[in-house]
Design brief:
- This protein has 317 residues and is mainly alpha-helical.
- The protein has 2 domains: 245 residues, no CATH class; 61 residues.
- The chain is 58% helix and 5% strand.
- The protein contains 15 helices and 5 strands.
- It has a 3-stranded mixed sheet. Strands 1-3 form a two-stranded antiparallel sheet.
- Helix 2 packs across helix 11 and helix 4 packs antiparallel against helix 5.
- It starts with a strand and ends in a 6-residue tail after the last helix.
Length: 317
């Protein structure tokens, strides 16, 4: 059986739009503030503020053009129906396993056996049913199917051919977010926050002004390595999600859950998080922006140079 993205979108929870709207209203300003602090770049022309309309966030129905026309083949209707319940089915299995010691203790007591009766025999059939349903659900790896496009599909940073704000915006595909949240077993709000942070990170790394008022030239940005642009967006997404934990505790967990499903360019930043300081990453980013160079290789050379310069001769080996 084959399913189109348009067919799958009809299965998105009905309250998804409202929930994504709430995330936008609640976190748009906070995420922009954190990105300003992390990147030391500003979208606004000056002052401490940041005009939220400079790169507006729009909630868009349907799917991005990268997904239109794609079909998910060789999967049963049962698999698609059960896919959103994978997390629930795993929790059923884990809960039954955790309950085993209590049941054993009860069955060792006369009053415990009276309480449980013959209902203890129901546990194994329920466990088997959960395993059977989970096996069917996992046949439809819909998250990997959606994300293997190797482009942003949950949201998109759109920009025009000139360096002006009216040409730029962030679009959140709330239906796709709702679907993927269900398939991952994560709250819609947490996934929407991660997507919003990622797309705004694209806007800041591209259009954000440095201390000298310079941005990344639009043509240079467009021609830059995909892995570099996604690596930078993911790096700052990770930094922001860490800091959002007080407002949205599940945000970091969803960022980590999503990562293994994403193509290689979306994981370029993992080593940067582990091996380099934010100051070193920022230095390398500003260097490639200023010189209108956009290769991942050049960025990582700059990153290594920043590390040597900022940590002294002792780290030059």
């Amino acid at each position: 059986m084959s399913f189109s993205i348009e067919t799958l979108l009809k299965r998105a929870p009905r309250d998804t739009l409202h929930r994504v709207e709430q995330v936008k209203a609640r976190l748009n300003t906070s995420i922009r503030r954190l990105l300003r602090e992390e990147t030391a770049l500003k979208l606004s022309g000056g002052g401490d503020g940041d005009d939220r309309t400079s790169v507006p966030v729009r909630l868009v129905p349907g799917a991005p053009r990268r997904l239109i026309g794609r079909r998910f083949d060789d999967v049963t209707g049962l698999g698609v129906t059960l896919a959103p319940y994978q997390h629930t089915l795993r929790r059923v299995q884990e809960s039954l396993d955790a309950l085993e010691p209590a049941l054993s203790a009860l069955m060792a007591r006369t009053d415990g056996r009276a309480l449980v009766g013959d209902r203890a025999s129901h546990v194994d059939p329920v466990r088997e049913l959960a395993a059977h349903l989970l096996a069917e659900a996992t046949k439809a790896d819909l998250v990997r199917w959606a994300l293997e496009v190797d482009e942003d599909v949950l949201g998109v940073y759109e920009y025009g051919c000139i360096d002006v704000f009216p040409e730029s915006c962030v679009e959140l595909y709330w239906g796709v977010i709702g679907l993927c949240a269900g398939w991952l077993g994560t709250p819609v709000e947490d996934l929407a926050a991660v997507v919003l942070a990622h797309e705004l990170a694209h806007a800041y790394t591209h259009l954000g002004r440095d201390i000298d008022g310079r941005r990344w030239d639009v043509n240079a940005f467009q021609d830059s390595d995909h892995a570099l642009k996604e690596g930078l967006a993911q790096y700052y997404t990770a930094r922001v999600c860490r800091r959002l934990s007080a407002q949205l505790p599940g945000c970091w967990a969803v960022y980590e859950t999503l990562l293994p499903y994403q193509p290689a360019p979306y994981r370029t930043h993992v080593a940067w998080l582990a091996d380099y300081t934010p100051e070193e990453v920022r230095y390398a980013m500003l260097a490639v922006r200023r010189e209108a160079r956009g290769s991942l290789e050049d960025f990582e050379r700059r990153l290594a140079a920043a590390r040597r310069a900022m940590r002294g001769d002792g780290d030059r080996a």
